[in-house]
Amino acid sequence: MTTQPAPPAAAPAKPPLRLFLTVLHLAGIGVLGGGIFATLGALLGTGIGLVFVAGIGIVLLVGLVYALYGLGWFEVARVAGLYRTPLAPLRLQPRDRPGFAGWLRALGRQAVDGRMWRAVANFAISAVLGWVVLRLAWSLVWSIIISFAPLTSADSIVGPFGGAGIPVAWAPLIGILGVAASAAGIIGLAFLHRTLSLAIVARSRETELTERVRASTAQREGAVRAADVERTRIERDLHDGVQPRLVSVGMTLGLAQQKIDTDPDAAKDLISEAHTSTKAAITELRQLARGIHASVLDDRGLDAALSALAGRSHIPVHLDVRMDGRCSREAEAAVYFSIAESLTNAAKHSRASEARVTVRLREGNVLWARVEDNGMGGAQVLPGGGLDGIANRILAAGGTFRLDSPLGGPTSLEVNVPCAS
């Protein structure tokens, strides 16, 4: 059987074509840039002036933030498409909590987003360069025209931007010099635009690789610490829970064996006690195994696993899970065990009477969860503790962790984990 060769990939634009496209971009931005920034300036001035007038100014300022985001998004996409540079598209800052407060916090982060402002600054620089390119383009056209001035009957020719006339005898030389200078200026500005755009909007490959290595190192260290904390927890639960119970079962059965001939009734009681202790040990082993891996998480998903977790909780749990699909196994497991450990801490240490668990699948394919209890607060991340295990597990999954637990409560814990982790 013969195989057909794969179709050739689209060839990248050649340097002359890329240069021509850059000049067109600059010319277009030079035409539109002034109007765009005049509109943004009007929004800013009007918004500040009307900020205390029935909230109209606040609405305009919010619109300004979104307008700046749209301009930044366009600039990133333009630079990526023009120079065939793989750039992540500019995205709105995600909400880190539900409701109006979450939206307001996200809006504040968007207003100070450095990447957005770099893109806007690059567009402003491009608008200035574009304005100069338009002037040089007109100078180029004028220089070509006056090169043929001796064919006319005029005695002198007005310069491209007004001013004193140029004698016709000198027109061809000035025209040739003008063509060379204008073309050189346009080409130089095109190369300058490329250099500035890649420096401002696009991050260098070395910087990107360095950040990836740093993130990978942090995730690996988090995974190692999470595994160490989990191993310590398992050892502690076995040593403090199951092991003494099994030792007690063995001793009780030994006493029953000694009394089975002389005092059968007492032996039966001891055997019954050992049986009860054995069932309790089995229950503890099941809980320990469930803490290592929740099988229902793989079989029925995060919603069902959290419902089972809330049903076993020692304090009432209000569960609010809204997910349109499934995330990766690693992401769901990280969020599940974070919630499980948080509920355990709320029941054991915070003296909480109830807890609330909220889970959302947010924009950008990010799994977000929040656990809040009405306990006494004061929770801290201590090395080797449960919260340290949560932080390391979330970090290992490539997510973020935030704890807010003032003295007197309430305590809230929020995690964000990318679904593709």
Automatic annotation (TrEMBL):
<keyword id="KW-0418">Kinase</keyword>
<feature type="domain" description="Signal transduction histidine kinase subgroup 3 dimerisation and phosphoacceptor">
    <location>
        <begin position="230"/>
        <end position="295"/>
    </location>
</feature>
<dbReference type="InterPro" id="IPR011712">
    <property type="entry name" value="Sig_transdc_His_kin_sub3_dim/P"/>
</dbReference>
<keyword id="KW-0902">Two-component regulatory system</keyword>
<feature type="transmembrane region" description="Helical">
    <location>
        <begin position="20"/>
        <end position="44"/>
    </location>
</feature>
<keyword id="KW-0472">Membrane</keyword>
<dbReference type="Pfam" id="PF07730">
    <property type="entry name" value="HisKA_3"/>
</dbReference>
<protein>
    <recommendedName>
        <fullName>histidine kinase</fullName>
        <ecNumber>2.7.13.3</ecNumber>
    </recommendedName>
</protein>
<keyword id="KW-0808">Transferase</keyword>
<feature type="transmembrane region" description="Helical">
    <location>
        <begin position="169"/>
        <end position="192"/>
    </location>
</feature>
<keyword id="KW-0547">Nucleotide-binding</keyword>
<dbReference type="InterPro" id="IPR036890">
    <property type="entry name" value="HATPase_C_sf"/>
</dbReference>
<feature type="transmembrane region" description="Helical">
    <location>
        <begin position="50"/>
        <end position="74"/>
    </location>
</feature>
<keyword id="KW-0812">Transmembrane</keyword>
<keyword id="KW-0597">Phosphoprotein</keyword>
<keyword id="KW-0067">ATP-binding</keyword>
<dbReference type="InterPro" id="IPR050482">
    <property type="entry name" value="Sensor_HK_TwoCompSys"/>
</dbReference>
<keyword id="KW-1133">Transmembrane helix</keyword>
<feature type="transmembrane region" description="Helical">
    <location>
        <begin position="119"/>
        <end position="149"/>
    </location>
</feature>
